[in-house]
């Protein structure tokens, strides 16, 4: 399955860009490392949940969408049963929605299964302050009452502002608060994670 190109910067604000000054950048994950991290996460999900019965994945748009698709494919391959996957936009659940200077862009939510009584694995590319995940938790609860909710992320860069911790992590990356983490997926087959170091 082909994945659309996605690029997300995770700085102090997902929409912010650094003002002035130059930024050093370095690749912290290449395509092979991303694939290995996702395969390890898939194995951990199966082990933690003793299979994938009654398990569904929800990718947080936009960064978690491609990773949720890949995890679903890996889980289906490993367990020989389909792994339901959906996608959720949490824009209207954000706690800063009324503080933004521009109108937020709301993407579609596509979830064609029930979450009631299920193990829901939320999937995102980068875990930073925890506010996006908090919004996603509220959105999931509005859909029903899951048996449990788990969180899988490719990158945990620290700097939490809320008591939120991922259950499955591809890589923990020490970062400065002013750094940007750029995640590229499906861009000419060259998946990567780039750290841009702020000054």
What does this structure look like?
With 199 residues, the protein is of the alpha/beta class. Helix content is 25%, strand content 28%. It has a single domain, classed as Rossmann fold (3-Layer(aba) Sandwich), CATH 3.40.50. The chain is built from 3 helices and 9 strands. The strands form 2 sheets. It has a 5-stranded parallel β-sheet, with helices on both faces. Strand 3 (55-60), helix 2 and strand 4 (85-88) form a beta-alpha-beta unit. Helix 1 (31-49) crosses helix 2 (63-79). 36% of the residues are buried.
How many beta strands in the DSSP annotation? 9
Question: How many domains comprise the coordinates?
Answer: 1
Mean pLDDT: 85
Strand order of the largest sheet: 4-3-5-6-7
Descriptive tags:
single chain; 199 residues; alpha/beta; Rossmann fold; five-stranded parallel beta sheet; four-stranded antiparallel beta sheet; 3 helices; 25% helix; disordered N terminus
What's the quick description here?
Helix content is 25%, strand content 28%.
